[in-house]
Amino acid sequence: MFLDVSFYLNQVIPALNKGLMVSLALIFPSATCGLIIGIIIGTMRAFGKGPIYGFATVYATIFRGTPLVVQLFILYFGLPNLGIYLSPYLAAVLGFTLCSGAYHSEYIRGALLSIKKGQILAAQALGFSTWSSLTNIILPQAMRRALPGCGNEIIYLIKYSSLAYIITCIELTGQGKIIASMTFRFSEVFLVVGFYYLVMVTIATWLLKKLEERFYVPGFGSR
Amino acid sequence: MSIENTEVLLKVEGISKSFGGKRILKDVSLSLNKGDLKVLIGPSGGGKSTLLQCINLLITPDKGKIFLNNRDVSFNKKKDVLALRQQIGMIFQDFNLFDHLTALDNVSIALRKVKKMSKKDAYIRAQMELERVGLGDKLHHYPAELSGGQKQRVSIARALAMDPLLLLLDEPTSALDPELISEVLTVIRELSNSGMTMLMATHQMGFVKSLAQEILFMENGRIIEHDTPENLLNKSKVRTRTQDFCSKLL
Lengths: 223, 250
What we know:
Chain A has 223 residues and is an all-alpha fold. Chain A has helices at residues 5-47, 50-65, 68-78, 88-113, 117-125, 130-160, 172-183, 186-214. In chain B, the strands form 2 sheets. Chain B has a 6-stranded mixed sheet, with helices on both faces.
């Protein structure tokens, strides 16, 4: 039964390709916005004081401390009670962004704390403002250290994007489930679905490796 | 050094600083004329680094006044603080080069981001300063690819590129192998000869004796002795604390 080529060509592949497009449309904005939120929240947690630190900590605690599915349910099924209606796609992107942002923030916070005090001192001594030393000196160094961890989070995001189908945003896994249910050929369909994810993760891993090489600085971090 | 060149550049009056109830600086005063090279010596923990960092307001003094070019410097106005730091170069014991930048970028980044120079002009200036400290062939090397002496020379070039009115040097040779010390001291000597005003914490006594106008001996947060090297080390009739300290240096 695994060799039924026309089943794959005519039903599985077209449907999964459609789902793949939705998955990519979920992953790209979530990864980008998640990373940006992670940088902001991580910086607030590493250097912020008082309410700034408090806000960032509460954010990280909530979104790291509750299951992603619960967050998605609240965004999609819960918010309408407050009069806020999100489309399945928007609710999914928002949920993924907020969740991955919380995880990114911890990688970035750790990297920021690893920057030697002397780097900040030297920047201040040259007349850099706090903001300018953060963006020109501290973050460029911290991001190099955080890259492996953040890459890991993005790879994880590719896989947990499959949860979107639970709130009716039919992406790759959702399409697979529809075809599998219609044809009762679960193992064949989900083997292909798994292969799609494997390819996406492999490409992402390769891109992240290229990124690390691109920003490599001798003697910085490991190697 | 010309004799008529006695304009006061930096005046520090009654600076005090405490950390967690411990008084690190107690009512410290000093002044530097244009072109002066004065040195701070004394046991570690005596307040030398804290004093230097108070002068360019990396540490805000609890009390006291700082005058640069006869202008009373405000400790609280952010703009004044940033402007003051641009006018005072700082050299650290452990270099503090920006690890992610090449020698050329280390020297040019403040020109571009703080002085808002164009990239091209900043690079031209940075290259000139690196050539001046003998590192014209290391422009594209990262800190990890440089020796300690080279790193310290890059950090001197980085400070000089900002056209500072004076340089503060916090034990610039203490983290260096003995063989690398002279290349850094040579650069500092040339700077002094060209009229740069400097306040330097150091224990390189040969250098101090041959070049410094005045030794400020610091202990327990106070300047307890200050005079020319000759008076403190050779001519004094009573044994000075400075002599006592220096006799223990190798």
